[in-house]
Amino acid sequence: MTDFALGQRWISDSESDLGLGTVVAIQGRRISMLFPATGEQREYVSDTAPLTRVTFNKGDKVDSADEWSIIVEDIEEADGLYIYFGKNADTGEDASLIETRINHHLKLNKPQDRLFTGQIDRNDWYDLRYQSRKFQFNYQTNDLVGLNGARTSLIPHQLHIAKEAGQRFAPRVLLSDEVGLGKTIEAGMIIHQQILTGRASRVLILLPETLQYQWLVEMLRRFNLSFSIFDEERCAEYAESGENPFETEQLIICPLKLLSESEQRQKQACAASWDLVVVDEAHHLKWSPEQPSAEYSCVEQLAAISKGLLLLTATPDQLGHESHFARLRLLDKERFYDYESFVKDEASFKQTADLAKALIGEGNLAADDISQLNSLDANNGEIEQALLTVNSQDAEERLTSRKVILANLIDRHGTGRVLFRNTRASVQGFPQRHVNPVELDYPEEYLSSTRWWLNRHQDQPKVQDVAALLTPEFVYEAEGHEDQPWWLVDPRVDWLSEKIKADKSNKYLVICAKASTALTLEKAFRTLQGINSAVFHEGMSIIERDRAAAWFADMEEGCQVLICSEIGSEGRNFQFANQLVLFDLPLNPDLLEQRIGRLDRIGQRNDIDIHIPYFSGTASESMFKWLHQGINAFADTCPAGVNVFEQQADGLLDALFQLEHDDAVVAPFIDQAQAIITDLNKQMEQGRDILLELNSKGTDGEAIADAILEMDDDTSLIAFMFQVFDVYGVQQEEKGNQCLVVKPTEHMLEPHFPELTDEGMTISFDRETALTRDDVRFVSWDHPMVQGCFDMIARSEVGNNAVSILPNKALPEGTFFVELMYVVETAAPKHLQPGRFLPPTPVRLLLDKSGNNLAAKVAYEGFNKQLKPVNKQTASQLATALQTAVHQLIGVGEGIAQQQMQQIVEQAQERVEVKLAAELSRLQSLQQVNPSIRDVELTALEQQRAELKDYIGQAGVQLDAVRLIVVSHQ
Ligand SMILES: Nc1ncnc2c1ncn2[C@@H]1O[C@H](COP(=O)(O)OP(=O)(O)OP(=O)(O)O)[C@@H](O)[C@H]1O
User: Fold this and answer.
1) Where does motif DEAH box map (predicted)?
2) pLDDT at 685 > cutoff 60
3) Which of 229, 236, 462, 933 is the most buried (most CB within 10 A)?
4) CA of 627 to the centre of ligand 1 (A)
């Protein structure tokens, strides 16, 4: 230990947070040290004191207590005190600083400062820092960011859509997969990717109020995205402060109604800026040129100010083809400017579709097809080249060239880039639907009220007057009969209660058209039959509805039956049940599909039983037969159903609006419907939008799923997180079944560990486990806990230096090496996605005492395994003894790191060029044939390219960690 002298500056090895100490008294072997920054004083025995002398080297910048700094050029010692000579950092004038005048608050947290002042970290901390930097780099350069961490099964069509749309700049797309194929999940994956890659940070989800909690839960549980629900009450809280409520959160879920019914809220929402607006159940956005609905106008305004827009609907044509066009118009006003032209364009896609069909077929392409393909895009060298081998005998060559051409066709296809639609037929793997019709007698009471109804609406009955005949309880009540409620006369009530009682092991979802029917039925079941059922209708508050749904979902103690009204059940997930009762039938085949879609969705593991009670000789029998025999809408999805209905509507509604029905009346409609369906199917097959299908399903879904599975199987995340838990003092407890309980302890290195709750939590690194257990968090590279750990480690000084022993007899004892970890980074804003091109990039150097860099020959992992830890005191002694040499080597390292940075920067610039310039030129040439590519996309790309190159050019390199390694033979 050096001799002590009054005024010297030391730092405590065990209490470095005390700051710089000053020797204030020396009495024999006893030393008193004052730490002015914290006002603490400590007594030490001179030869065992855990203290390290603070010494600066040439080139260091040292702050004085008088608020100026010196750049050290020379060091002298007088009366045991260092005097630093050099230049004033601000004025450049000659200056000197005696160590007693060094700033007490000086932070010695740089790697070399800590190494030379005895603040030496453990070897495993150093290793953790290295691993964290490496994994963060790997993560940021992986193009599965935001996809691998979703707590979802890996379903190829969803992954394809999510990657395709999620990696665009400001995606504007219509997600219109058939009911229950996972549009919410696709939207979540897109949002997740956009947020994690920095493309988006402000997201607004608009939806029917009934779905707000379902979305809230899905976003949190599956994507760790914490949205806030906004209602009138929440907005009103900001009335006094005058703040715009929509600017108080980044991720907001809000019923569309809140905005469409309040001018003030709509204005506020439009005054906030949005990266992404999402509209669920977008078929409600009704539009006509003369009279756009309030909902449509509201979304139109938001669509104009938001960068990205996702519209979700399973039934895009539900309110007519014009409204479908109008929704596309929200996505891109320039492209979809006029309905007539849109219809014309649609027809012209047929030629491209025919070519696509030929390409996916087995046979050789005809000469005519080849010349058509050639002339479609005369300047496209890629197509030209691929066409040479399109009929090759070599199967692989043939397939590859066809894939290239198809990809080009999809790119140039009209709605291909804005519209995604998968059907059950194209996705497959769905359960069977069993149709169980039940014929019941029509009670006298109903017959008489039906007669009354028909008489009342004889002149030009409206659609709803006809629909009323399918809900005879409503007609009966409309006539009066307070003395005898309908459920006492309706045979469906008895039939259903018997059925439910006889089949206690199954859950039943009952759907009826009207809320009043649902309510009465529940009461009848409870009072008459002792059956507990939950109700679910639009008149209930959201909390009541969610409570009812949760009660029904509870497999152990929940109710067996849930009775829903039509509107109440829209978009809901009930696939844990497989018994559906259609208490009545809707006129619109799309509504029927929405009803069945509650159960027939992803996640349904069983076949579905659809029970259909109808009254013989009534409109309900005719309707059942038409739906079942005419368009087969129960056993299968029938996308053309609405079309058929519309074609037959006039006659069919007349036929239904009768007192008595026999097969003869409805039979011609059934025959005709079958013929229309056959014809439509044929037409659809011919004009089938094969490009839309191919684009929606994609060919990369399986490969993305495989790549994610590979990441799932790689155990390096588990090893890394265990290492973080160990170093930071987080308690881990194996819980079996791939689960782990992690809890904070009193000895944590940092008081707040990312995402860790005070009471601890159960986590799993296994996707399947997380999918089956709601209480378990799925920890992946995307998870905020892992991301938080990367940040926490990078921000802190943990592990930024170490001293190790290399027990190697082949090298002379005392030989030493200096390992230096640098990080090259740029301070570009997140939205430019610098991580894609130049994420914080670790550079490792391993210098021998002559300054040779051995890093390429001696890889980190193998070398690290050979090293042994050394106790803190010896470590500090070694660092002090070799300080001058190590300091010089750091200077050498700086030069090498700078050179390597140049290379890294050049490569990053090249990546920007290759990736963005290629993307840009592809879009530019496509724009000439496919107007759905927006100018704004091109401008954004160009800007991104220029700005990125600029920022990357300004990248810097920083020493992140240093390790001194000394050879020992002991
Ligand atoms: N990849 C997946 N992994 C696990 N569950 C999924 C996945 N995709 C969808 N699901 C589940 O399947 C159900 C249907 O998905 P979702 O609600 O996204 O469908 P949708 O197309 O939006 O339905 P709707 O047309 O009724 O609105 C939901 O319960 C959802 O959680």
Assistant:
1) 280-283
2) no
3) 933
4) 26
